[in-house]
Amino acid sequence: MRISIEKSVTALNDSVAAELRRQWRARQLFCLNIMAAPGAGKTALIEATIARLQDRFRIVVVEGDPHASLDRDRIRASGAVSVQVNTLAGCHLDARMIQNALKTVDLTGVDLLILENVGNLLCPAAWDLGEDVRVVVSSLPEGADKPFKYPETFLLAHVMVINKIDLEPFLPVTAAELRHNALRVNPQLQVFEVSCLTGDGMVEWCTWLKEQAAARKER
Amino acid sequence: MRISIEKSVTALNDSVAAELRRQWRARQLFCLNIMAAPGAGKTALIEATIARLQDRFRIVVVEGDPHASLDRDRIRASGAVSVQVNTLAGCHLDARMIQNALKTVDLTGVDLLILENVGNLLCPAAWDLGEDVRVVVSSLPEGADKPFKYPETFLLAHVMVINKIDLEPFLPVTAAELRHNALRVNPQLQVFEVSCLTGDGMVEWCTWLKEQAAARKER
Lengths: 219, 219
Description:
globular, 19% strand, homodimer, alpha/beta, 37% helix
């Protein structure tokens, strides 16, 4: 499978992203860019992560949605600092949006910055936001064929979180199939299987995240 | 809530769509444009619809995906004529793609043309494909807040099909909530609740579709 991404379109974006990455690394801040289809559970994953890590980490979340600030309000209710970016007709976040959104946020002492992208399995893939790690959340009810239909996102991700595994007994698809298909597209993917509803798999995910953020401090 | 869609961008598209609509109406052909997030069950809905209507209707399906032709193969296996459009980096179908895809398809005697858009709750909304009816499929595991986050798609749709209602007992959300929220965004929406897996609700959906296609013949 051959994927080409138009680099000229994103050249300005890439320079802003590189500057953000430089600033964040100087602060020893670890940054995730979380991508997924609408309703895969990105916000639920962030809420469940905050609940488990906020006694140890200072966390800031940028929420991207075309409209509304429902997700920012959910994240604030869970205890972290959150800002909302409304992209309106825009189908992805870009580095300038992140730069603007964070102008009013004090990042002193922040350990973990989570960027929740617009719900979209295609458009966000080409846009570097300055993150350390790209995470694709793929929920099991979406089926096992998404890596083949939207390969850019899976190919450019470092981590896949399979969410809603509690529903597996009621679905015509298994987490093993989805994992297998994603690894065919990108054999380097690190895969976690979780249910944000039941908490299954959250220990493994949060342990990995703590290790990544700690490694950032040591560099 | 105020939604503005940039009309100049889509002006050329609209003229191609108008021409397609004129041709299809002359053939007494009824056309659906089906939009949804990835994994909501658009293809499953089309398969289940073909299974129930193919002894009465001639059906043609255009499948839109960034990559792969898995959906075309599924639809062909269910007995209908199907062509695949791969949009690559493109996040929606447009009228020119439909015009090109149908060049090799004989529409003589075809009653129902189904256009399955790219899995994306935002980008397809602004692009007229010449359809009679726009359908948004919203699957219950995606949650009940999608109409507020992606209002363009719900506002411009005529029909919402809530899919995967068989999962309701295992989800933190109800079909009634999703219906309520969608109707707040667009009170004119006609709503069907189905499970393509169990067949629940398919009689109501197919009865409505038969009536619509029959009304096209009488005009």
